[in-house]
């Protein structure tokens, strides 16, 4: 990476920054692949890209129905607008909250907007709540 210093304005090369950036990108790829398999197992949907597969809220709702055992009767099956996508995501988030899933600073607009880091954070919270809790209780 190249940054400029305030005193001279000359570019300074920071080779370690590129390594950190690459390892962060690699870590996100690993999380994405692992979490996608977990969601796919529970929903039956083939998750390839959370930024695409989660933004309309339908897969997220299906996941929450499976995990919580609750059924959502009315939602937008084929959302056409950002408002309809946000409505679907909000329904799923409401189920999360009713199931005591700890969600901090994650809103419907974030998920419907395709924020990958927040989507991955959300899925991690679900894994902690539904998978890790089950494993620790059964041990």
The span between the termini is 47 Å
Strand content: under 5%
The main β sheet shows up as: 2 strands, antiparallel
Q: Helicity level, as a percent range?
A: 55-70%
Mean pLDDT: 84
Number of E strands: 2
Biggest sheet, spatial arrangement of strands: 1-2
How many individual helices?
6
User: What are the low-pLDDT stretches, counting only 5+ consecutive residues below 50?
Assistant: 1-7
Structural class: mainly alpha
Element pattern in H and E: EEHHHHHH
Multimer state = single chain
- Rg over CA atoms, rounded to whole Å, is 19 Å
What does this entry look like structurally?
It is a single chain. The chain is built from six helices and two strands. It has helices spanning 15-43, 50-53, 58-68, 82-98, 108-112, 116-138; strands at residues 2-4, 11-13. The protein has a two-stranded antiparallel ribbon. Helix 1 packs across helix 6. The longest helix is centred in the N-terminal third of the chain and has 29 residues, at 15-43. It is globular. The N and C termini lie far apart (47 Å).
């Amino acid at each position: 990476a190249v940054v400029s210093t305030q005193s001279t304005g000359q570019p300074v090369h920071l080779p370690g920054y590129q390594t950190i950036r690459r390892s962060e990108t690699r870590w996100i790829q690993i999380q994405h692949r692992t979490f996608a398999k977990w969601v796919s197992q529970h929903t039956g949907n083939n998750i390839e890209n959370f930024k695409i597969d989660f933004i309309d809220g339908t897969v997220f709702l299906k996941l929450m129905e499976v995990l919580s055992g609750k059924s959502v009767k009315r939602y937008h099956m084929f959302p056409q607008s950002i408002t309809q996508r946000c409505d679907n995501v909000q329904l799923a988030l409401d189920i999360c909250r009713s199931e005591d899933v700890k969600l901090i600073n994650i809103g419907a607009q974030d998920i419907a907007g395709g924020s990958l880091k927040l989507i991955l954070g959300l899925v991690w919270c679900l894994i902690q709540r539904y998978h890790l809790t089950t494993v620790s209780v059964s041990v």
